[in-house]
């Protein structure tokens, strides 16, 4: 603990003070604990030790929401919270899988029978990775797997991508595919091109096998991030830049508020937002909305053209969010580059307001978390992730972490909502 009582280690919950309601913290496991948990589960279920344990992080998106499937920019960091996969190869095409987070016992799927729509639940994300690798021409066979995770499920922190990426790097290692490379001592991947390929495999697993129409930001963050950096992802060409992101050096912290309002990407609302953007792009004669976002004059003409058509108001609001959000990513990165870190606050605030009003993906819990954090002194706050529930983030002074968390917890209690959970996010290493 620091002198101010702020957690200096994200695996350690802050010490309690006098509180009107309890504040719940979600600590990250250290790598040793996570690996031991997965290894022990594997041994208890399958009666033998796994060939190895691999892990992958969840993510927080600092800014750039619903831009990935529009060819835009996003700026996520990898969380210290990770999913751990203990895995061994089999000599057949059977996949057996068990999770400490699911009390349903062992599931079994034959890869020969694994086609989109045939596998349900969390198993679709696991089997989907093997299926997508096989579809890409890799000779991946059956395996036994045990999962344990400290990435909160349904919190908008990309537990699905963490699951996919942990399985992807495990299968890459077990089958000598040569795509994942290694992660060096500084927390950087040695083969970004190969990891980009693995990220696309994971996207296909999520889109086609699990039926979630997401973009590729989550998988890129889990596989291609770098410790101590934010990942500036260009979703038009898949290129990345690593932007230094060390809030502690500036006396700041990123507070994550899991509202406990569970969200799911396998829902009609998410698909509707993506369909609206694709329809707008079709009417404008462009491949993605990025093509108008990069030119302010073109963006203004595009909004005017959409306003005159059917469903004009709806499409204008959706496109306006995407265009402005892409610009906000650039603004955020500029502030980081100049060392004016608190200067990112207005962009965070504007992002949430746009997601609430133009994109309509916020909810009562997210708005309450954001509004309370702002009123309690946060430099900026916004929802993070796809929306319709999930988590919010707030940029706060390091010494104010507990006070802001307490204010949010009290506000939720006063509103009669489920108690939120909190974490402090630092930029961690990628899957490995």
TrEMBL record:
Keyword terms: ATP-binding, Carbohydrate metabolism, Cytoplasm, Galactose metabolism, Kinase, Magnesium, Metal-binding, Nucleotide-binding, Transferase
Domain GHMP kinase C-terminal: 338-413
Galactokinase N-terminal domain boundaries: 41-89
Listed EC numbers: 2.7.1.6
Matches recorded under InterPro entries: Galactokinase (IPR000705), Galactokinase_CS (IPR019741), GalKase_N (IPR019539), GHMP_kinase_C_dom (IPR013750), GHMP_kinase_C_sf (IPR036554), GHMP_kinase_N_dom (IPR006204), GHMP_knse_ATP-bd_CS (IPR006203), Mevalonate/galactokinase (IPR006206)
Residue span of region Disordered: 1-20
Enzyme class at the top of the EC tree: transferase
A Pfam family recorded for this sequence: GHMP_kinases_N
Keyword Kinase: yes
A single Gene Ontology CC term: cytosol
Keyword Cytoplasm: yes
Record-level Gene Ontology MF annotations: ATP binding; galactokinase activity; metal ion binding
One of the protein's GO biological processes: galactose metabolic process
PANTHER family: GALACTOKINASE-RELATED, MEVALONATE KINASE/GALACTOKINASE
Family: Belongs to the GHMP kinase family. GalK subfamily.
The protein's name in its UniProt record: Galactokinase
């Amino acid at each position: 603990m620091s002198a101010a009582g702020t957690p200096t280690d994200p695996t350690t919950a802050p010490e309690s003070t006098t509180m009107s309601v309890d504040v719940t913290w979600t600590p990250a496991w250290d790598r040793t604990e996570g690996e031991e948990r997965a290894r022990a589960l594997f041994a208890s279920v399958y009666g033998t030790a796994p060939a190895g344990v691999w892990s992958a992080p969840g993510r927080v998106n600092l800014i750039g929401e619903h831009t990935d499937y529009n060819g835009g920019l996003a700026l996520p960091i990898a969380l210290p919270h990770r999913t751990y996969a203990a895995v061994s190869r089999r000599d057949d095409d059977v996949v057996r899988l068990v999770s400490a987070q699911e009390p349903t016992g062992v599931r079994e799927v034959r890869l020969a029978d694994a086609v989109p729509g045939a596998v349900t639940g969390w198993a679709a994300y696991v089997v989907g990775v093997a299926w997508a690798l096989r579809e890409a021409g890799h000779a991946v066979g059956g395996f036994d797997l045990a999962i344990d995770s400290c990435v909160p499920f349904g919190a908008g922190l990309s537990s699905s991508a963490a699951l996919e990426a942990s399985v992807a790097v495990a299968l890459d290692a077990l089958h000598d595919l040569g795509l994942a490379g290694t992660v060096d001592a500084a927390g950087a991947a040695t083969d970004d091109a190969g990891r980009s390929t693995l990220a696309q495999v994971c996207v296909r697993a999520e889109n086609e096998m699990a039926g979630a129409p997401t973009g590729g930001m989550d998988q890129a963050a889990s596989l291609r991030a770098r410790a101590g950096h934010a990942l500036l992802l260009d979703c038009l060409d898949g290129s990345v830049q690593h932007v230094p992101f060390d809030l502690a050096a500036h006396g700041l912290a990123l507070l994550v508020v899991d509202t406990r309002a569970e969200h799911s990407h396998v829902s009609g609302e998410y698909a509707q937002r993506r369909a609206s953007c694709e329809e707008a792009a079709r009417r404008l004669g462009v491949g993605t909305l990025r093509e108008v976002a990069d030119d302010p004059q073109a963006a203004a003409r595009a909004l005017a053209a959409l306003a005159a058509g059917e469903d004009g108001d709806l499409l204008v609001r959706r496109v306006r969010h995407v265009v402005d959000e892409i610009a906000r990513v650039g603004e955020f990165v500029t502030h980081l580059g100049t060392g004016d870190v608190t200067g990112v606050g207005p962009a965070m605030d504007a992002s949430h307001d746009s997601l609430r009003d133009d994109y309509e993906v916020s909810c009562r819990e997210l708005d309450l978390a954001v509004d309370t954090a702002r009123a309690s002194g946060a430099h900026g706050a916004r929802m993070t992730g796809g929306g319709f529930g999930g988590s919010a983030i707030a940029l706060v002074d390091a010494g104010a972490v507990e006070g802001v968390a307490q204010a949010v917890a009290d506000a939720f209690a006063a509103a009669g909502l489920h108690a939120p959970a909190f974490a402090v996010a630092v930029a961690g290493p990628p899957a490995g």
